[in-house]
Amino acid sequence: MLQCDKVNESLPVNVTDEVIQQNPEFSRLLNLLSQHINSDGTSVQAQKIYSREVEELLMDYEIKSQECSLSSEDKQFQAALQECLTMAEIGDYVDCNPEPGSSSTLLGLTREEIQRQNPYKKHLPFLQQKLLPDIEDRLRLKCESLVTFHDPDNGTESDRLTFAKASQLPAMIDSECHELKQMKVKLNKEKHRKDKQFWLYYQTLLDSLSLLEDLICRYRLQNQTEHDTVTTEWLVSKCDGLCLKIRLTELQILCETYTVETCRALSQIRKYLKSEHNETETEYTNVSQALKAYESVGMGFDSLVNEYSKLKNEVENKQWALKEFQQSIENKDR
Questions:
Q1: Does the predicted model carry a pTM greater than 0.85?
Q2: Which of 169, 170, 138 is nearest to 154 (CA)?
Q3: Of these four, 60, 251, 300, 328, which has the most CB atoms within 10 Å of its CB?
Q4: What CA–CA distance (Å, rounded) separates 252 from 209?
């Protein structure tokens, strides 16, 4: 098949092969348009949008019928619209052929034959007259919702101005996407620069630490022994000085505590304590000798002492009784 025939079949145009050969860029443009426009001149994207809107409209009718009873006109419109949508979907499967370039169709059917089976074919103008305003209103509301979502502060503006902004929304979104991409590229560059700077600082820090370690090993540790020796000698001298200072303080305290008068008083106290000690020792010696004398008498001495104590107590008791008896007699004589 010639290239002009492919273009004429995919688009509602009639160009010759000579025009295609003389204008290759025009041919390229037509090929690009064929990806977005059907052979009947309708937009592929618009057709998908209309189909989705029709499906949503039928779904709304179905939900509405569950909530309340539909009018007879709405029921007829719903049934006709559902039937037309079904026929259109069946027509989409007619050209489903795994072999590209083949003219055969599914079961040998054509779109015209399927459309002839549509019982509402005669009512298509009426359906379109009622359907198009509904779809336009739905699309308008969606566009306004998109504008409001994109710009929440847009709620105070009029519907006409909001719809006008909706027509500019794709360009605005493309511009914002372009700005975001530029910002992303800029952020990636900044991140790369920061990472490079970080690793540079990190390597510099490692080099500095290595140099510091080398300096410590070379100068600090070599003189550490001498430094420790000097420090030890200084600490020993300081300790000796502190010991002498403590001894001096002790002697000062002793001198301040034991004056001449204090020493004299302490001497007298010592003499008194010594004499008391001698007397106590003498008394202790006498008592010890008496105890030894008692012990030399033997075990019978204890019994004699006990008997003596017992007799002495009896004598005292009898003397007390006799004295009481005499007093009682004297009291009677009176």
A1: no
A2: 169
A3: 60
A4: 57
